[in-house]
Design a protein that fits this description.
The chain has about 210 residues and is of the alpha/beta class. The protein is about 55% helix and about 15% strand. About 40% of the residues are buried.
Length: about 210
């Protein structure tokens, strides 16, 4: 089933751009768009979209009750305080309006499946604060050890794909994907796939061809 999305933003050009980007994906459908959260509530109640992408957080709590996956907040500029506030209020994703096409789709796929997603810029800021990943120079060296196929698997891990989904997309067996994941974690020096996925986001790997 395609992931259904409702867009809320008072900038018409932003909505139009995001809608065009989303509708390029065969497995995403935009069920509606509006400028204000107050007007988006009846649309959300009617369509019950998997994801709401909104720049207006005034009705965040109420929008949450109308979606199958969650709400992605869209911001012109992100601050630590703003991120903390919207996550505390129940947002499952956070994007900047300058986020890439790849990040937009990755966020929609992840949140539609019930996961969370932060854009690379905000992820990097959090990771730097808590120092749970290696510095960029060391991480780049780790990426250099990956084969082309391992990089393809890592990108899909960062997009929230399961092993089964990666296997289907890359025409591999699930056992082969599991083997690639093990090699990726070893080469990057990461304890689990979540850390590896965060590292890929931090380094901007989603914006590269894979």
């Amino acid at each position: 089933m395609p992931a259904s999305v409702l867009l809320i933003d008072d900038e018409v050009l932003v909505r139009r751009g995001f809608r065009l980007a989303l509708e390029e994906a065969a497995d995403v459908v935009v069920v509606g768009e509006t400028a204000r959260a107050a007007d988006g509530l009846p649309l959300a109640q009617r369509h019950r979209p998997h994801v709401v992408i909104t720049a207006d957080v005034t009705e965040l709590a109420r929008l949450r009750t109308c979606v199958g996956g969650g709400v992605i907040v869209l911001a012109a500029e992100g601050t630590d305080e703003q991120l903390h506030r919207v996550l505390t209020d129940g947002a499952r994703g956070f994007l900047l309006k300058r986020s890439s096409h790849e990040e937009l789709l990755a966020a929609v796929y992840a949140v539609a499946r019930g996961h969370a997603y932060l854009c690379a810029e905000m992820t990097g800021r959090l990771l730097d604060r808590f120092e749970i990943l290696p510095p960029p120079e060391e991480a780049d060296r780790g990426l250099g050890l990956l084969s082309e196929r391992e990089r393809q698997v890592l990108v899909r891990m960062a997009r929230g794909r399961s092993n089964d989904e990666i296997a289907r997309e890359l025409y591999l067996t699930c056992a082969t994907v599991k083997s690639h994941v093990s090699h990726i974690l070893a080469k990057l020096g990461q304890p689990n796939r979540m850390h590896a996925a965060l590292l890929a986001q931090r380094l901007g790997l989603l914006s590269r061809t894979a």
